[in-house]
Amino acid sequence: MAKHDWKPIFLRALRDVPVIRHACEAASIDRTTAWRARQADEDFADAWDHALEEGIDRAEQEAFRRAVAGWEQGVWHQGVQVGTETRYSDQLLTLMLKGRRKNVYADRTELTGADGGPVRSQAQIVIVTGVPEPGDNSDLA
Fold it and tell me: CA-to-CA distance for 19 and 64, rounded, in angstroms?
């Protein structure tokens, strides 16, 4: 395969699995080759970003499906499958809500001062000019 043929393979693999290492392996190139091409070719860099976004969008869709629609998992008894049950991922749903609705679902930490009052702070600004002389025993040397 000619060296110039690797880019379409790389981009297709990146869309399928949004992991640079995976795309490099699929295109049979070193990661350095990919990164150098990205730096040298603005169109390729744009295509790379687009392919990566497509792959991440698909992964996000799958995470949402698992969180909301769920998936079928076999129920086994004494080594025999006796049915299925729909499983859901509360953890994925929580993660997605925290990411998409930060103002509502994000973890928050409230800092308070003494007796629940406001936090009080003091700042001291020191402007230093020049370079300390050897033997200067000041706190700023």
Answer: 20
Residues near 139 by Cβ (< 8 Å), separated by ≥ 6? Answer: none
Domain ranges for the chain: 3-105
Per-residue pLDDT reduced to its tens digit, 59-69: 999 999 999 99
Distance CA 121, CA 94 (A): 35
What residues have CB less than 8 Å from 96, skipping those under 6 apart? 60, 63, 64, 67
Overall average pLDDT of the 96-119 stretch: 84
Whether the predicted model's global pTM rises above the 0.70 cut: no
- CA–CA gap between residue 83 and residue 89 (Å, rounded): 20
8 Å CB contact between 128 and 140: yes
Both tokens of 90, joined, read: 């509360």
Q: Which residues of 70-101 are buried (b: 16+ CB within 10 A; e: fewer)?
A: eeeeeeeeeeeeeeeeeeebeebeeebeeeee
